[in-house]
Structures are given as structure tokens and as C-alpha cells.
Amino acid sequence: MRVNVIEPKAARSLPSVAPNPLFLRDEELTRGIELLDAAYRSLIGESDREFAEQGLGRNQRWVLYFVGRHPGITMVELVGRIHLSKQSLSRLLNELVGQGLIARQRGARDRRRRLLELTARGRQLEETLNGRLRRRTEPVAEHHVGP
Hints:
By secondary structure, the protein is mainly alpha-helical. 57% of the residues lie in helices and 8% in strands.
């Protein structure tokens, strides 16, 4: 029997002799959510602890990450990526600027724009903490067995 995955209504109307592999039951979905949560906590737990030792939280980590990946990003662009209010982001940026991790520079074309970038200290911290996380998520090279 073929099931049309494009039209789920048609699949639901088929006789249910065995559980349909295209649809998960609530308990399966709940177990999947639990596994995703455990994997997430395992993946970022060490990094979160290291950020906390530096006096930084998860929001500061995201700011450092996005500014590091997008040098010259503006606060307005950053608000769209991090989904914090302008007030919260402004407070975080002021803290990170005060700690010497982020620098604000005037735009060359539009001097009203404040472009954000990591300082040397900010790049070092971001690479130390987030770099370890990136390396943990890199695909493992395939090992070939044989001659």
C-alpha cells in the first residue's frame, strides 16, 4: 500500500492496521521533545558554565556569537536576530562594551549608525567558549575499514 505524504488527509483516512510511520503519537512526540531537551542541555551545559564563570549569561553569549559572525552588524539588525527588546539588548551591549568585549564604531557612510564588532578580547572569549561548542558539533570524518 502506498501512502501519499503530500496529502496527509488521505493518509489519515487509510485503515489503521498498524501505526502509521508517517504520524507520531503524543507519547512518541513527548519522548522526542525530552530527547531534544536532554541533547541541548548536554551540548551547551559546559559552555553555559564557562560563560557563568566569566559573569556572562546566555543572552550575552548570543550577542557575542552574532556580533562575531556578523562584524559591523547594527543594534537594529541584532534585535531581529536575537529577539530581545531594544532596551534589553541595549543594556547587554552597554555591559559588553564596558567589559571590553564589544566595540561600537560610527558607520563610514552614515555616521548615525553604530556598527558593532568584537574587540580582540571579545574574539578570544567567543572563540574559546563557542569554538569548543562548534568543534563538538562538527561532523566526524568517516573511517574506512580495509586496504
